[in-house]
Each structure stands twice: as C-alpha cells, then as structure tokens.
Amino acid sequence: MELTLADLEIGDVATIESFDVEQLPMKLIEMGCLPGNRVNLLQVAPGNDPLYLNISGSFLAIRRETAVQIIVRK
User: Fold this and answer.
1) Relative to the CA of 15, which of 33, 38, 45, 68 has its CA 20 to 30 Å away?
2) What is the pTM (predicted TM-score) of this model?
3) How many Cβ atoms sit within 10 Å of the Cβ of residue 70?
C-alpha cells in the first residue's frame, strides 16, 4: 500500500517519493514539493482540510485532494 501525504499524522516526518506532475499545481513544485525532500505535517485544519506542512523549510497549506496525489516514505 502506498503512503500519501494525506495519510500522515500530525508530527510525522516523511520523504516525498513521487507524484504526477500533471496533477500537482506548479506553485507547490516551485515551493519545494519535490521528490527527495522531507515533509513534516504540522497541523490539520478543522474538518481535516487543509493540511499545514513544512517542506524543506517552506511552510505550505495544501488541500487533502492534492495531498492524496503525493506519495511519501516514512
């Protein structure tokens, strides 16, 4: 079973493995959402959407529907 960003628990640290470039907003890629970079789930908003992340020093909030497309490894 593949693990995605949406599967992480608050405080988890993982490494981005892969994603479909066509499905991911270019802004996320520009801000460091790249394979090999570390990601830390910091918070989840009420209603479980969006997720607040630290990706290699950049703080991002992304929607759960986007997070399920990013494959990670703990």
Assistant:
1) 45
2) 0.89
3) 25
Phi, psi of 26 (to 5 degrees): -60, -30
The SS3 call for residue 66 is helix
Local mean pLDDT, 10-residue blocks, the chain (74 residues)? 93 95 87 93 94 93 94 95
Burial of 42 (0-12, 13-18, 19+ CB in 10 A): middle
Residues in Cβ contact with 60 at an 8 Å cutoff, skipping those fewer than 6 apart: 28, 31, 33, 52, 53, 54
- Phi, psi of 5, rounded to the nearest 5 degrees: -55, -35
